[in-house]
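Full entry
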Amino acid sequence: MIVFFALPLFTMMKSAVSDPIAANVLPATASALSGWDRESPPSAALQAAFVTDLKQIEDDQLFGDLVRRLNSAKSGFRTLMPKTRTAAKEAGEPLDLVALDKRWADNGYWQVIGVAASSTITDRNLLAALDLGRDASGEVAALPTGASANRAILLRTFSMALAVTVACVLIGLPFAMIAASVEGWKRQLLLGAVLLPLWTSLLVRTAAWFILLQDNGLINSTLMFLGLTTEPLALIFNRVGVIIAMTHVLLPFMVLPVFSVLAGIPKNLMPAAASLGAHPVQAFLTVLLPLSLRGVISGSLLVFMSALGYYITPALIGGAKDQMISSVIAYYATGAANWGMAGALGLVLLTATLLLYVVYLRLSAERELRP
């Protein structure tokens, strides 16, 4: 638990709030910041300290990390910092930064440096994960429109996970009821059919759906052969295909908890309700469904939490507007090498999952306390 669960979670949470690069690379600047109110232009001593720090940076990779950190907060540092570093190393006398580049007269650049170099802990990534940031006065404010789409992708992720959960309930509950109502080889056959996806690689299952859902795939060919459609339906590279494929993959996590609850319910309850004059639908709604609700909630929680972190299925089956937050996390982790943002987005998903689990525990405790 410590090695494979607690330690990775701690590392992720630490990377989400850790921001040591500027403070480590610009120590003289960090010391000179103590006397600056961040509203007036930076003093000559602060500018000289900054130039001194730039002269002492020998590691190009470390300098690149610093530039990425600053540029992520304000565009322009990617060209400004290399130019300033080169001039600082070549200057034999105190360097006039404003004469070198007029952007150094903009207090916005210095404020970014001040925030980055003054502390090794930051809430920048956590705020950016929700399309928020801090303005010049330090107050939390929404990012400009188009600057980030993390909130929209998070909402898309939750809505798609909810749609998959509902689909699994609508399919899994009747399937589990049928499996619980039969015995012997019939039950084994039904359970084997729902367990089969778990014995197959996720990539193989997703690739199989890629073949089935395409325009000339088995599903569209069958529909057109039966005359139900005159042209192929759009089932791939859209949200419909993603939900179909994810529902198939996650269905066992709904069927098994519901089946385990239904298998423990006495089989004479429904006949007893019928003998008392209850309609089959009424008997189901008042007897069987309430008793199976614990399994439905458990299955829904498992499906929803699993769906939140799906990556392969949306990447292969979905289109550009169907990617979930896992794709953004993968981009920050492997493409942009921004572990802070990757950790912050992962922390948002972890918080949502823990909240759902707490709600489930509360509901379970309330049902157990009821007479």
The domain at 150-369 is CATH 1.10.3720.10 (MetI-like fold).
